[in-house]
Amino acid sequence: MKRVSVVERALEDIGWGKYHNFLFLNCCCGWLTALMWQSAVANVMAEYPDLSLFEYTMLGISVSAGSAAGAVLFSSLSDRYGRGYIFKKIIILTSISALALILSANYVMVFISVFFVGLGTGGDVVCPPPVMIESTPPSRRGIIAVMNIGYCIGPLLAQISSLLLSLYWDTSIMARWRILAICIFVLTVGFMIMRQYIYESPIFLFGNDNEEFLKVIGRIAKENERFSFETRAPLLVNKQATSDENRVKTHLPFIEIFRGRNLKPTILLTSSISLFNFSFNGIMLFLPAFLQVDSMGLRYTIIGIQQFAGIIGLFVAMKTVDSKIGRRYTMGGGYLIGGILLLMFLFSTELNFIIILAVAYYFFQMMGVAGKNLIGAESFGPQIRGKALGFIYLVARIAAVLSPVVSGFLLDISDGNKLLPLASFAIGLMLSGVTASFLDETRPNLVKK
């Protein structure tokens, strides 16, 4: 029996409802915000006037360092102060940092601002899965796969906005990167206000011996129109008092993610996700060259089709994660098939076939990402969930940063031949998928009432 089964059974009894729709929207917008700001910062780097190569590189390092630090910092703080509490504060930091970026008068201010924007978005990347999982009925956690739609829509919205600004905005009024940042800032403020109305994780509160978990469960039941559930609250008090084995201790040391049963998922998830990030970041750099599309309109059409295919992949993943395929094979299979499709690029010369491969590749990659975000959070207990996800993201982020460096080295030793780095990305993806298949399945086996 899980140590937090008292709360999970209560959530299962309440079922999915209005509050979960609201929480789902907030978590989805968390990822959307993070990805939009990552695209916005890339736009700043591309359009900021008179940047030297060193200054350009330092901006990239600043936002990457901020993102990695934010992931580790806020995920760890969420283990101590609460999932909902930290999740609410993250977007406030992002909003303030974004405003500072908009008002930046020189390069130094931009450099500092993008670090803190990265700090906030790093937290928004790792915090939504625990927030959602710890307030959701176990039987409905598969829907979290669709939450990854923020990964698809965020960059697409930023790219479309950037395209429209490049076509219609007069740069003599204001720089395009600045007006794009203003547009995303307005959205972020709206999301910030909306996020302040979510509740703290009842599982986190239960693990901290905080009787507020009863009030939170009662509020969730009320918002989900399960008014009769409130009469059963005393039963939870009795179970709480008589079931010490159900308790969890929070604030465990960081080293706990490398001890006991946590060691296996820490190693496997870190290896698999790092290999994926290395490969995915690399292929995103090389894909435009392989598509060989000169028309801007056609290029954005292909990007749109890719994102749409990715969204379909998320809905397919929502079904597979709760089927016999489960979380680990959704993740592993998506990455493995994506790697195989990537290998086919090596033998393809026809543009139409390459476009089909690119779309199919993105479909399976988003399936893998959906499985990853679910099994990643479920593989660890509530007491170290934040720390574990923060550590994994940190290592995976380093792998992503190293991707263009390794790619450049492979291009040098192969006299500019793009096939060698492409093959390394494909092999990396396949190894990522194989590694994920060794994870323990986390799909819940619910006890029938």
UniProtKB/TrEMBL annotation:
Membrane topology category: Multi-pass membrane protein
Protein name stated in the entry: Major facilitator superfamily (MFS) profile domain-containing protein
GO molecular function (one): transmembrane transporter activity
Compartments, record wording: Membrane
One GO CC annotation: membrane
Pfam families (alphabetical): Sugar_tr
Transmembrane segments: 21-41, 53-74, 86-103, 143-169, 175-194, 297-317, 329-347, 353-370, 391-413, 419-439
Main location class: membrane
Signal peptide bounds: none
